[in-house]
Structures are given as structure tokens and as C-alpha cells.
Amino acid sequence: MNLLIISASQRKASQSSKVANYMTEISKGYEKIVHLELCQYQLPLWDGTLESKQAETSDWGMINQYLSDADALIVITPEWSGMASPLLKNFLLMCSSQHTAHKPVLLVAISSGISGVYPIAELRMNAFKNNKLVAIPDHLVIRNVDEVLNVQNNDASILPERDKHIRHRIGYSLHTLNNYSKVLKTMRANLLAQAYENEKLYSYGM
């Protein structure tokens, strides 16, 4: 199985990337783990056409291949004015159910303060209608993110209590995602083997 981790801050060397790097290091049960820091790649502002994805300067072809290969995703977004990042929303609009349908995704929101819940609510409400990604019930909100996950050593005896707690919670969420990955991989194979009559009529959500 393959895991794709998306960090969606529009700033380089971001806290989102820091969290993604930590998750890359501790994730288990996958043959391949890829971390894509979206701001490092060229993505067009999608205009609803296939041509915009295939623009000469676009890196979408490479990113879409990672999506196609992935069995599970982690999506990490900063909270900006109570919203997920524009870069992430553009990315999710570009995703096609052909490559992403019925794949589990763990949602992670980060905040420099005590908030962080609004991007989760926003994404659960309107981010997966047509790409058919499956947001698992568990999610992560990492508050005061600049104060945690800064020490590489995962030894609980030397970590502050809040840092220790969020690391343990991240481990639990990754464990849950991995189990969803296994189950939904089997389900995707079953859906492919037993296609519903004229199911192409329903490529978009209702």
C-alpha cells in the first residue's frame, strides 16, 4: 500500500510541512510514503477544463500519478481566516474520481493559536463531492503548532506533556487510517470487478 501526504500551505518551510515530515517519519504499514509540499510545484488555477491541468508549465501530471498510486491520503492545511488554504481547495477541485474515489483521507488542520477547527468543517462539508475521497471520522487539529513536534526524539520521558499527547494522538490517527486503507482497497477491487450498470452516469456526487 502507498500513502500520499499533502501539505498545503502556500509558504515554503511552513508548519504544515513540519507536521507532514513528522507523519512521514512515523507512519507504518505502507510500502511507499510520498510527501508533496504543494507550494513547491506548479499548479494552474483550475478553470474547469482538462486543458488547464495539462498546461505546459503544470506539474499536475506527476501529482496525479501519485494520487492514482496512493491507497490513502493525509491532507494538512493551515487555518487562514477560518478557511482551508486556497492552494488545497484548488488541488481538490482538480482531483478526479477516476484516481481518488473511495480512498481514505485523514484531515489535519493546524493553527498558530487555539483555533483550527474551521478548515475541518469546511472540508467535510464541501471538498469531496466529486472526487469521492472518503474522509475518515477521525481528524487532527494541531493548535499552537509552533510549540510542538519540534524535537526529533520521540522519547516521551523528555517531551512536554502537550507535545507528548499530540504525538500519541497522531499515532492513533495514523493507525486508524492504515486500517481504513486496507478495507477500502479491497472495496475498490470489488467495485471494479462488479461494476454497476451504467455507473459512469454517476461520476459526480449529488
Which terms would index this structure?
5 strands; five-stranded parallel beta sheet; 206 residues
Protein model, in words:
The protein contains seven helices and five strands. It is α/β, with parallel strands linked by helices. It has one domain: 3-Layer(aba) Sandwich (Rossmann fold). The chain has a five-stranded parallel sheet with strand order 2-1-3-4-5, sandwiched between helices. The radius of gyration is 17 Å and the shape is globular. The two termini are 30 Å apart.
CATH H-level superfamily = Flavodoxin domain
Q: Which overall shape is indicated by the principal axes computed on the Cα atoms? A: globular
How is the CATH topology named? Rossmann fold
SSE succession: EHEHHEHHEHEH
Strand order of the biggest β-sheet: 2-1-3-4-5
Q: Return the CATH architecture.
A: 3-Layer(aba) Sandwich
Briefly note the structural class of the backbone: alpha/beta
Rg, Å, rounded? 17 Å
Count of all domains = 1
Helix content: 25-40%
Percent of residues in β-strands: 15-25%
Number of strands: 5
Rounded to the nearest angstrom, the distance between the terminal CA atoms is 30 Å
| Total count of helical runs of at least 4 residues | 7
Poorly predicted runs: none
Q: Report the CATH C-level class.
A: Alpha Beta
Summarize this entry quickly.
With 206 residues, the protein is an alpha/beta fold. It has helices at residues 15-26, 50-53, 60-69, 86-94, 97-100, 117-126, 161-193; strands at 2-7, 32-37, 72-78, 104-110, 134-142.
